[in-house]
């Protein structure tokens, strides 16, 4: 009886008789590789430096897919500058376009500029993207504390603004309208002392990301410095004690020589009728220059806001300018150097915009 020869038998017979080997399997790359514990990046950063030598403009889309599958896109044409990472921390982690966290800094910058997702989600994405890029756990956690507690924040506010509209006669007149929009509301930038406190906290406690989010600024200040008895102040290289920021409280007001906490806020400029809205396109040129009392009022509003946010008085220098519908207060924070002098420091700047009624409308760190 003749048995039919099936293909499988022919192959087996060929292997036995001729010693042939099966062909190796052809592996087809997965077009969508699985997401790792910390997600994955899509594409490469292709960008050019802008003329100012500080910003980069993306020439191609770049994206990060986080562990939940959420896609964060840095689109073609986006301008990034690393400003979403507090500048003081650059001294320990390097510039924003250096090292393994470069990819994370690009998508983080875009998230902070667009403000389409919550600031909490954007900063958590930054931590996961750092880990995805190969940043070691301890350094990634220092960076996460930096952006979560000192980095950009935003919220939606309702604001009354002055707009110029044409009346029935075609003349431009000013009209107050109510608008709702998203604004930055950054916390005060970190001090050099806080930088050291963050490093010690991460190194000694090895906290999880959730614990970092809960360990706010006041907890950081209250945390004992390990390795020395409680209450023992830190020391300078020459052995002299370094004063804590609380030793400067209350901060002396340079204009009046009175502790800031004891000063009574002057009436607002609107109540003083020192600032008058005048119709016409030449309004700004017709507004009288800022008076001393007006400047002190604006500075005190901002000073109290920062003291409350930081949990301790913050020595600073202030400059006040007029802004549409209110004032712009430019701030340079100070700290004590090794010689005991109060000096400015890198990354210790911000600007605050306030209304004529004293409402803090916007705060942007690193903007002066």
Summarize the structure.
The chain is α+β, with helices and mostly antiparallel strands. It has 11 helices and 12 strands.
What are the key terms here?
three-stranded antiparallel sheet; alpha+beta; 368 residues; 23% strand; 30% helix; 11 helices; 2 domains; 12 strands; four-stranded antiparallel sheet
Please describe what this structure looks like:
With about 375 residues, this protein is of the alpha+beta class. It folds into two domains: about 40-150, no CATH class; about 155-185 and about 235-365, no CATH class. Helices cover about 30% and strands about 25% of the residues. It is built from eleven helices and twelve strands. The strands form four sheets. The chain has a four-stranded antiparallel β-sheet with strand order 9-10-11-12, with helices on one face. A hairpin with a 4-residue loop joins strand 11 and strand 12 (about 360-365). Helix 3 runs antiparallel to helix 4 (about 120-130) and helix 4 runs antiparallel to helix 5. It is globular. The N and C termini lie far apart (about 95 Å).
